[in-house]
Specification:
Number of strands: 16
Radius of gyration: 24 Å
CATH topology of the largest domain: Aldehyde Dehydrogenase, Chain A, domain 1
Number of domains: 2
Largest sheet: 7 strands, parallel
Distance between the termini: 56 Å
Number of helices: 14
Shape: globular
Order of helices and strands: HHHHHEEEHEHEHEHEHEHEHEEHEHEEEE
CATH class of the largest domain: Alpha Beta
CATH architecture of the largest domain: 3-Layer(aba) Sandwich
Structural class: alpha/beta
Strand content: 15-25%
CATH superfamily of the largest domain: Aldehyde Dehydrogenase, Chain A, domain 1
Length: 419
């Protein structure tokens, strides 16, 4: 069987599974999720062994420390994955919920109700936990899912898939409700993107190259989970102790994630006194700082010169770009030019300036006096997320269960005909 034929068969199986899921009661979907959690626990040894193989091969290939951290399934990571599945069971299912309803003068009653999207293709890199997260969130909302993980995590993903499919089968669902492309060929992605008669939505999660490939080839709608070039702007009326806490949390807590801080902007009126303070605090946390001339002037000898490329780079590491700006207009202009419209912050005690920022900054999530690290489905109270959308249509920001549904109209008549 050729690569094209193999992918076509997977897409057709996914479509059949998606249609099957539409007929299943919500209770059975939750039963399948519980069976998946149990199956993961029973397969723990196999999964961790497979992950060690991936880690060893990744180290031989010289993959960065940040990517290795994403790839590794630690004991705590595994327990979080399993607990996450059970938490999703407890979330309210949006399927079948009435969004709105009304009556027309002719007596027709119209309801708008939530339904599954159908079959969702998710292409991602490195993190094996996405295999579990994506599978359970899609299943909870009645969607079949076709996954394509990175080649660096292929052994981990195959082991996770086997456990998930075993759980689905025990609950009476077809295994094809969750599928993983078993091949690592790069040609598989364009081929998957051509299955528009079977796949209803494509979600790429990864670097710029991956997202460009998917958007260029996809014949179905795409929701992009683009890179996170997140900013913090420290306004002249900021509480500087608060600013330091927020910056350290946003940059240092987990530097390898998409909602970590990548560029710090500081108002020039406070730069001479705040830069020495924040540079010292960042250096204590092993952060490399790359700054413009003003940052180098006031931040000291440890600040390296920033290049034009630094302003548009998602480091996913303990590296931070720092620039001094002449006020909020210049700060917003910088974010609009170089940012990815993911998560951006203003730190200020001036409510008027804060409102200006919140209203004018065109990003999926905008913050006043809080860390970018809160851009997360769990932190927003969604319980879980499929990722962070930087698009504007259908879904924006953390994608929870509701964003994995579409809707349809149900119309109730009593013999009406149109004149």
């Amino acid at each position: 069987m050729s690569l094209e034929q193999e992918i076509r068969a997977i897409a057709l199986q996914g479509k059949a599974a998606g249609l099957d899921l539409m007929k299943r009661p919500l209770k059975q979907l939750d039963e399948a999720l519980l069976a998946m959690a149990l199956s993961l626990e029973e397969s723990k040894g196999i999964i961790l062994t497979a992950n060690q193989i991936d880690l060893q091969e990744a180290e031989k290939r010289g993959i960065s420390g940040a990517m290795l951290e994403r790839l590794k399934i630690k004991e705590s990571t595994f327990q979080s994955m399993v607990e996450g599945v059970r938490q999703v069971v407890g979330l309210e299912n949006p399927l079948g919920k009435t969004i709105r309803e009304w009556s027309r003068p002719n007596g027709l009653k119209i309801k708008q109700v939530r339904v599954p999207i159908g079959v969702i293709g998710i292409i991602y890199e490195s993190r094996p936990n996405v295999t579990v997260d994506a599978s359970v969130l899609c299943l909870k909302t009645g969607n079949a899912v076709i996954l394509r993980g990175g080649s660096e995590a292929i052994h981990s993903n195959r082991a996770l898939l086997q456990a998930l499919q075993t759980g689905a089968k025990k609950a009476g669902l077809p295994e094809a409700v969750v599928q993983l492309l078993p091949m690592t060929d790069r040609e598989a992605i364009p081929l998957l993107c051509r299955q528009e008669d079977c796949i209803d939505l494509m979600i790429p999660r990864g670097g710029e190259g991956l997202i460009r490939t998917v958007t260029e080839h996809a014949r179905m709608p795409v929701i992009k989970h683009y890179n996170g070039i997140c900013h913090v702007y420290v306004h002249e009326k900021a509480d500087l102790q608060m600013a330091e806490r927020i910056i350290l949390n946003a940059k240092c807590q987990r530097p390898g994630v998409c909602n970590a801080l990548e560029t710090l902007l500081i108002d020039e009126s406070i730069a001479p006194r705040f830069l020495p303070q924040i540079v010292q605090a960042l250096r204590k946390n092993q952060v490399e700082i790359r700054g413009d001339l003003s940052t180098q002037q006031w931040g000291g000898a440890e600040v390296k010169a920033a290049s034009e490329e630094d302003w548009r780079t998602e480091y996913l590491d303990l590296i931070l770009s720092v620039r001094v700006v002449k006020g909020i207009e210049e700060a917003i202009a910088h974010m609009e030019q170089y940012g990815s419209r993911h998560s951006d912050v203003i730190i200020t005690e001036d409510s008027g300036i804060a409102e200006k920022f919140l209203n004018e900054m065109d990003s999926a999530t905008v913050y006043w006096n809080a860390s970018t690290r809160f851009t997360d489905g769990g932190e927003f109270g969604f319980g879980a997320e499929i990722g962070i959308s930087t698009d504007k249509l259908h879904a924006r920001g953390p994608m929870g269960l509701a964003e994995l549904t579409s809707y349809k109209y149900q119309i109730f008549g009593s013999g009406q005909v149109r004149a």
